[in-house]
Amino acid sequence: MKIRRILAPTDFSELSERGVAEAASLAGSFGAELVLLHVVEPAVMGGDLYGAAAMATVLEQVQQSSRQALARAVDKIKKRGQRCRGVIANGGAATTIVDTAARLRIDLIVLATHGRSGFSHLLLGSVAERVVRSAACPVLTVPSSSTRRARKRPNRKR
Questions:
Q1: CA distance 15 to 10
Q2: Domain boundaries, the chain
Q3: Is-contact 26 6, C-beta < 8 A?
């Protein structure tokens, strides 16, 4: 399988930047195009017309700041001589990642995991887990540093 296009979802957090860095490294190794995806999830807000108008204003501000942050991230990667473009989409994170991957004919998705467990995982679910289950292409998950520390084996003296 030839990897021509890699999708790296980002929410611009330090954790998702680890996933982007891994995706950029792989894209460089494969000579692939890197597509950075930022998903703006809809906020549910009840109320009157004033609330709807205020929500529209907030959504536009979120879209604008997302476009700026994504442009900076794309430029940073392009300065290293790599092919990269950014995409902003609206919707639920997992579904939008999977749909975007299919629409853009992505060969590999690389995304960071938050390393949640227990009640937090049960309550919030896992975007990475849903993407792994639903994506038509391979998915590489990059664990959070806390997950990595938990997996390290203690040094044993012989």
A1: 9
A2: 5-151
A3: yes
Q: What are the structure tokens assigned to 158, written together? A: 């012989």
Structure tokens at 112: 């960071």
DSSP class of 81: T
Write down the architecture of domain 5-151 according to CATH. 3-Layer(aba) Sandwich (3.40)
The residues, any chain, with a CB within 8 Å of residue 11's CB and separated by 6 or more, are 38, 39
CB count in 10 Å sphere of residue 101? 25
Residue 33: how many CA atoms within 13 Å on its side-chain side? 12
The pLDDT tens digits of the residues spanning 29-80 come to 999 999 999 999 876 555 555 666 777 778 888 889 999 999 999 999 999 9
